[in-house]
Amino acid sequence: MTMNVSGMEPTLSNAARTLPVIISSDNTEDIIAYAQRNRSKIESHLLHEGGILFRGFPVDSIEKFEEFTAVFSEKLEAYNERSTPRSEVQGKVYTSTEYPSDQHIPMHNENSYSHQWPRLIWFHCVTNAEVGGETPIADSRVIYNHLDPAIIARFREKKVMYVRNLGGKIDLPWQTVFQSDDKAYVEAYCAKAGLQLEWLGEDRVRTKAVREAVARHPETGEMLWFNQAHLFHYTSLPEDIRDFMLSYLKEENLPRNVFYGDGSPIEESILDEIRKVYDQHTVKLPWQEGDVMMLDNMLIGHAREPYKGKRKIVVAMANVYNNYGLDR
Description:
This protein has helices spanning 31-37, 39-48, 62-69, 140-146, 149-158, 174-177, 183-193, 229-232, 239-246, 268-280; strands at residues 11-12, 21-24, 51-55, 88-90, 93-95, 105-108, 117-127, 131-132, 137-139, 160-167, 196-199, 204-211, 214-216, 223-225, 256-260, 282-283, 292-296, 300-304, 307-308, 312-321. It is an alpha+beta fold. The protein has 2 domains: 11-103 and 116-131 and 284-321, Clavaminate synthase-like (Double-stranded beta-helix, 4-Layer Sandwich), CATH 3.60.130.10; 142-277, Double-stranded beta-helix, CATH 3.60.130. Strand 4 (88-90) and strand 5 (93-95) form a beta hairpin. The longest helix is centred in the C-terminal third of the chain and has 13 residues, at 268-280. The radius of gyration is 20 Å and the shape is globular. The chain starts with 10 loop residues before the first strand and ends in a 7-residue tail after the last strand. The model is unreliable at 1-8 (pLDDT under 50).
């Protein structure tokens, strides 16, 4: 249970595996001073529950938000190997994914399709939508434990192949994805990151990457469902968009698609089951302006609900990690 007590220390919800833990204030406590005083407690909750919502603190600027993240990490990370459109707000603070407001973004752990990903991710609500726009979250441990063991065994054996066709008139330009227009740099990056690269012309490129479908948390040792198979698969698209694309593109030429690691198709019934388990274990809270949500990106996935009106959620990431034995 969370309490707001004017003039007193912000209170901390302490129920077992509450998601998210809610730390609330009466709008007088400085969030940075609170974090500095209680860093070990916050980090302990982050490892146990996986996600914390700071509410009622006067976070009235991007600078304040960025200063808060610095309590937990010396530097923020750039958004590399991009899969969605985002804009830099300042420094390495970004807008949340700039998808059309009427579309749902499925649950995912940030950059779990890549060879490396941020361990920490923060969201800050600058402007709340008039309707909707929540950032639902789900525990990757819970998803792993509630999926059919046969599905997990199949993915562990076969792994996941992510296929992207960059450029052209549909997906992000390869220059945006890799944050460079130097082909030699892109080739070196792909070789280092375990990406198979195929140039399809000056403005188009195809990449393939075989990644693990599960992960073991480096600190807790818990097993996690950690991939974006259900998101990358073309069946995650709205039906009208999916039908339009398939009317003139083969599956292998879609901007984004996914297969088992051996290149065989993933059964739609299995993808439906994965989505069903996510839906059953998703937590959704409405944003309030000034909110800051901090997640262990391996333990907790996030999504985005459709919305109406203006909405501005900014994102920061830190503590890059990989378990592929590859150098950064």
